[in-house]
Amino acid sequence: MDIPWWRDAVVYEIYVRSFADASGDGVGDLAGVREHLPYLAELGVDAIWLTPFYPSPMADGGYDVADYRGVDPLFGTLDDFESLVTDAHRLGLKVLVDVVPNHSSSEHPWFQAALRGEHRDRYIFRAEPNNWQSTFSGPAWTKLPDGQYYLHLFAPGQPDFNWRNPEIHREFLDILRFWLDRGVDGFRIDVAMGLYKAKGLPDIQDQSFKSVSPIWGQPEVHEVYRSWRKLLDGYPGERMAVGEVWTDSSEDLALYVRPDELQQSFNFAWLQAPWSSTAFKKVIDDTLAAVPFATWVLSNHDVVRHRTRYDTADPGTGLMRAKAALLTMLALPGSAYLYQGEELGLPEVKDLPPEARQDPVFIQSKGELVGRDGCRVPLPWSADGASYGFSPDGVAPWLPQPATFAALSAATQAGDPGSTLTFYRRALACRRELVGSLPYTLEWLDSPEGALFFTRGSLICALNCGTEPVRLPSHGGVLLPSGPLDGDLLPPDTAVWLRTSS
Ligand code: NOJ
User: Fold this and answer.
1) Which of 132, 18, 124 is nearest to 75 (CA)?
2) This model's pTM is above 0.90
């Protein structure tokens, strides 16, 4: 069987608002992405995933879509998008776009019509709310002046569609076709375990997340992905979809990637695991046992950046662990998703002033929840300038950047052999060279407590999550370490790729 391009692909997530601003309004845009495509090709990724750039009132950074077939003027034009796809393909990069089927914006013409009392069956209206809470805090229902309530699992500006109405199915198939016809290689499906709600909308006993509940993981959702899969398979060029599927078990995750459903789903178990060899080993074993094609991810625009998650009292630890985790992740069978800025070792920005914060999580919870702005701070491209090269000079970016971003900028790191960026480039180049010859399987090797050793064909990966150095497994040469080795000892918070001895 030919191996599909996405099986081993490294996909780079671009949070468009925060990547690069070419237009000079302080917000990242498609032209900014296009300008930096050579940087991404040089980094060595195989594909990019663009977060929503569709017309939107931006109640949730664009995850509130008012028109599924356009480009918001803030981000550019459809022509900009088409040029971006052409350039990306010329550079050998595939392009994934986000599709947001669980909810639209309240400004979407269909919801505007529903507000006027027309076709309310496209959304979820009730005379009385149930006890569901919004993921962003507070009730999941908003009352209209006429006394009816509508459901929004996220912000009030994101009304949930009623997928029990066949019109929604037809509409989304048409939206997918629209972007497939414009050459996209695939989709990232927002809130993929949502869409259907249990009939009758019963109250829930427990507000904590469950991957199968009246709110999430209803069995009918799988029919949607079966029809999407048929559509994707009808196009040339291995078009694919990856689901944003939060589950509490790998068995539930596996339901979304059955052979006639999505090709991939995000596997958040690794991202949620603590820094522990036992936890990592369990995630790896569970994942590989459950899904045919694994994916791995350490950070995205919704979670605290992993460099900061891995921090301890010693401020150097987070970055060392982040690099070690990356090397381990890139050695696993399957595809890896990177989040913009991790290649620069960016930390979470924790001290954004409250008045600068824009995440609806912060706003809706009245500041009780800090929200996700800290991982969305615009990227530093150069060491100087008002926005470290994010916007044309003199323009303030939509979120303020800390002064520490100067030393972390792409330009500063590009020529430095010891930088995080250089390390990422090396790791991705080395992976690209090896990946075709590695079996899609993994074997564990005996390892001392706190460490994790495994082999795939000619590659050995060793990771030390413990507090003491450990002796390397027997090997035939060092390919790439994530930090300095001590002779044949692997220091704590370090990983290394080795050649097998035979
Ligand atoms: C998941 C997206 O990644 C997140 O940013 C967004 O707020 C929610 N879905 C709602 O669309």
Assistant:
1) 18
2) yes
